Amino acid sequence: MVVALVGAGAAALRAQDYRVFVEGGVSSLHAKQYYQVYGASFASTYRTGNSFTVGGEYPIFKSLSAEGSYSRFRNNLAVTDYVNSTTPNNVIGYGIQGQRISLDANAHSGKPIKGVRPYLVFGLDLNRFEPTSGGAALAQSRGFNGVAGTVLKTDDRIGYNFGGGFDIGITRMLAIKIDARDHISRTPSYGLPTSATSSFGAYYPVTGKMHDLVFSAGFVVHFGL
Question: What is the pTM of this model?
Fold first, then answer.
């Protein structure tokens, strides 16, 4: 009898904490690079784009949930070539789109504080960066880093993220979600080698980490609260 009551209570607690969410926002990729290709000077950076995410939470403890989400984002990779080491000559923008699967631990307040549930998250990402059809066509027609006929490919990167936010209750089952996260991974090279090969082929000598700062807002549907 006691075991049954405890089990029923735990089930009710968990039912109260199941959540699904959808949100949209801004993706700001930070990976400024300066480099040389066959003696010519270049720089590359990313333009701010949009982001869309769907996901859900599964309760583990009263103040801890497992969170899974899927995101899509769109940014342009802007490559600048220089007449010399300091004077920019031309900028070409290559369309880049991304997908991301994230698995996170979500630590949150056990109960809403005046209708607001603050939380912190930390977890792992599987990122996919790929050129759009227009970006791939541009790399072949106008070249990439001064090399015509370049083929840009999909680049998968494992990374991690951290951040936090607030769920602001509106009704018994609906809340507004405000979220900010930093997704960190190695800078993608889109299938290109990072150093020169024996032939006059394209390469992209980028190193270091990429930060994707995502600021988003959306809605959370929860059950029994």
Answer: 0.87
